[in-house]
């Protein structure tokens, strides 16, 4: 059995960490025909867009893609490739498992969260306009359809993974209509899943609680922007952006990508931590049903991290990105 999978290397540290992830996945023995396609600023001159049609077509055909980070200009320039992809393919659920790994320095020991972030609407959709040069307006849209399906997705994950608790995160005390709708949907869906404990929390309080006692939380479900912010914060609870994977899931298509960005400050130096990219590959293999290979990679990675001898500079070592991947391959 072999799989056709789209691979977007991305830019900045993208090609480095994705190169490491691809090498490890290939070494696991799972046979993959990679369709490697580029997106981002580098392709604008050739295709007139950072997200060419053939990239979307490749993912639609293969149904599974793995993607490195793509730089988005701040405050001006082209629209985010990531937001474009999520909307074009209706990848409505962004799933980010945040877990402590032995050997990865962090302030906490037993964090095991899954952040489920709505991925298509909210302020993060970037619908905005200027009112002359004196003001600007961003439009926050929350729909019942998107709220229902993301909360349903969160309960589904909780049930499939034998988890105990779902917490809906919102700001319905202030945004009574938009976040209020999200919360109402969450409560209705929770009522149909009595086997899983449900609670809700305002996003500011949630931020404090996560910093105080992250081990008390399990599955968190929230609208897009809160998910963007809280998942980076949660990465900080377990050793940083270098170790947190992610997936964008739609009805029949999935694009796997780590939480971190293109890290221009360390790009091109072969020092980025590929753990997040490799764990993203592990999520992809589980999605394909390749559980044995996924487990082997996960265990090899955990072993290398816990030994602490060959880790990248963000974790206090001086191992290069490529050497780290080789170390995991040796441990497979
Ligand atoms: P970033 O995640 O790229 O970097 C934040 C900090 O974390 C930096 O100090 C960086 O060196 C460090 N870091 C990130 N990943 C690391 C890794 N694997 N190993 C070691 N250190 C790592 O966030 P930033 O700087 O806000 O964004 C840079 C660019 O990436 C922006 O253009 C942004 O739009 C884009 N971005 C793209 C994403 C995607 O394509 N999925 C996601 C997030 C940001």
TrEMBL record:
Q: Which keywords annotate this record?
A: Oxidoreductase
Would I find Lyase among this entry's keywords?
no
The signal peptide annotation in the UniProt record is none
Mind telling me which Pfam families this protein's record contains?
A: Iso_dh
Q: One GO biological process from the UniProt record? A: isocitrate metabolic process
Under SMART domains, the record lists:
Iso_dh
* Recorded GO MF terms: isocitrate dehydrogenase (NAD+) activity; magnesium ion binding; NAD binding
Q: Does the keyword Oxidoreductase apply?
A: yes
**What PROSITE patterns is this protein classified in?**
IDH_IMDH
**Domain (Isopropylmalate dehydrogenase-like): residue spans on this chain:** 4-328
Query: InterPro entries in the record, alphabetically?
Result: IsoCit/isopropylmalate_DH_CS, IsoPropMal-DH-like_dom
Member of which family?
Belongs to the isocitrate and isopropylmalate dehydrogenases family.
Q: What is this protein called?
A: NAD-dependent isocitrate dehydrogenase
